[in-house]
Structure formats: structure tokens, C-alpha cells
Amino acid sequence: MSLAGAFNAFKSSTLVSWKSTGKFQQTIASCIQRTGKALHSGEVTTVKICPEFAGEGRYFDFRSSFIRASIDFAEETPLCTTLCKDGLTVRTVEHLLSALEATGVDNCRIEISNSDCEGRSVEVPIFDGSANEWVEAIEQVGLKMATDCSGNSCEKLAPFLNEPVHVWKNDSFITAFPSPKIHITYGINFPQVPAIGCQWFSSASFDDSFYAKQIASSRTFCIYEEVERMINAGLIKGGSLDNAIVCSTSRGWLNPPLRFQDEPCRHKVLDLIGDLSLFARCGSQGLPVAHIVTYKACASLYRKLCFFCFILFL
Ligand SMILES: [Zn+2]
């Protein structure tokens, strides 16, 4: 069974109902463009985000090919979320997609390019390791109501969870409960890194300002002792103390101060929103309206969630 098939099952199952959010679909008011270094490839990449019609959703435009920001094209890759279609890949999409989902940019074209005119792969810039750069850029130009090509506004749907769902792998899990509003509770545990240890973060509510103030500025983190292994695996070629917070098992944080005492846990929430945004279709919300409780979740669990929905409800 393909991931696309599983998603369609999720979409048509009784587990979720696609209902109106009471809002209209939006897009960005005008284009924004940012250039920066990518974390894993180290390349310099330019991203231009442009307004799009309602119903078109979010999609990347790479080498004049369109790759929808959808679970249909998501690939499991180490340490980042990748979209892949027809041999073209766009890596590390999660922070950008998290910012677009959380701020309500439901429809947009994301042009992305690097200096390698022949390459088949491109990567979204990392900036400071958080979603701040994107949120600030979006706030600068603002949003507008998106209309379809006939000039009509379109209501924005969201997946509302009807029944509890629970998936797990070893000691990590994702549980989601029906809830009239989005709540996210996230736990991480690094017993071998005392400066991080066990952390839990729980969102009180989830409006745009909560994300901008409490989540967007939390940065990617990594364990110092794992950096060499990642470099040997061809990852984090663009990594530096400017685009991640680095923690040593014995010496604690190497580049303080943290922006939040529980910044690593908040960053996981940022990533989760980016990954769940891939459930969006045709300008809808991707993030399920539910109380989501996760502990040590990883990207593969989201896939498992998708399959879980298929197995149980068809
Ligand atoms: Zn991240």
C-alpha cells in the first residue's frame, strides 16, 4: 500500500471529519524572498514564496517542476523531512512548512533554487535553526484572503479527530484525543545528556500569536558527541554554532544562552507542525484538530499514524 493510499484512507475514514474552521483560505499578500545556507548540503539556496489561488495549496517549484507539500511525496530521510517527485528532491522543508501552516499561508508557490543548475536536489536554508526568519518575513508582507480563479473565496477545512488514536514504536508514541481546539503536548528524553534530560512542553492554545511567540524562535539542537557521526554520514555540511544549539553530554550547552529553558522540546513541536502540515490538501489545514500527546516521536511514527488509520478504519 502506498503512502498516498494510506492518506486517502485517512481522509475518507470515520476517524477524522473534514469540517470548516470558520475561516476562509488565505495566501501571502505579496512575494517574499530569502537566501541562506542549507544545513545538510551546505549550499546557498534562494526561496521565493508567491501568492497562489485558493484550492491550490502549498507546493514547491523546483526546476519548473511542481512538488506538492503533501504526505504523498514525503520521504523518510535522516534528520530532515524531504519531498521527492520524479527524481527531484527538496530537503529540510519542515521549518518553512511549519511557519506557513501556523501563520495561515494556506496557498502559495515556493520557488526554490541553488547555484547548481544540473543538480536534482535542493535544500531549504536553515538560517538560525528556527522558523523565525520565515515568520518575520510573512509578518512583514501580511496575508490576504485567497480566491479561486473565478474570484470566489473558499472556506478552510481542517481534519477534526473523532476518536482517540494511539501509535507507538518501542518507548516512543503519538496519541491523539478528540478536542474542540488544537493542543500539543510533547515529551523528549535524553538521559545521556543531563543538560537536556526529560522535558515536557504543553501548549495552552494554538493561535497564530502563540506560535510566533512561543514556538517559532526555538532552534534545532544536536548532541555534540553525535556531530562527527553525522558529518561522516554526509550530513550537516552547513552546520555551525550559528544555526543550531549544541549540547555536550559532559559539558552541557556549548553556545548558550537558550531562548527558552525547554527550547529543544519546543523545537520538536515546531518540527511536528511542519510534518503534520503535509496532511493539508487543496488549501485546507493539515494539522489535525485534536489534543496530540507525543513522546520521543520521530518522522517514521507519522507514517505509522497514516497506516494505522488505514488498518483500523477501512
Ligand atoms: Zn527542526
UniProtKB/TrEMBL annotation:
Q: Report the cofactors.
A: Zn(2+)
A GO cellular component annotation in the UniProt record: membrane
**GO:BP terms for this protein?**
lipid A biosynthetic process; lipid X metabolic process
Q: Which Pfam families would you find in this protein's record?
A: LpxC (PF03331)
Q: Which UniProt keywords apply?
A: Hydrolase, Lipid A biosynthesis, Lipid biosynthesis, Lipid metabolism, Metal-binding, Zinc
The pathway entry for this protein reads as: Glycolipid biosynthesis; lipid IV(A) biosynthesis; lipid IV(A) from (3R)-3-hydroxytetradecanoyl-[acyl-carrier-protein] and UDP-N-acetyl-alpha-D-glucosamine: step 2/6
Q: Which family does it belong to?
A: Belongs to the LpxC family.
Q: What is the name attached to this protein's record?
A: UDP-3-O-acyl-N-acetylglucosamine deacetylase
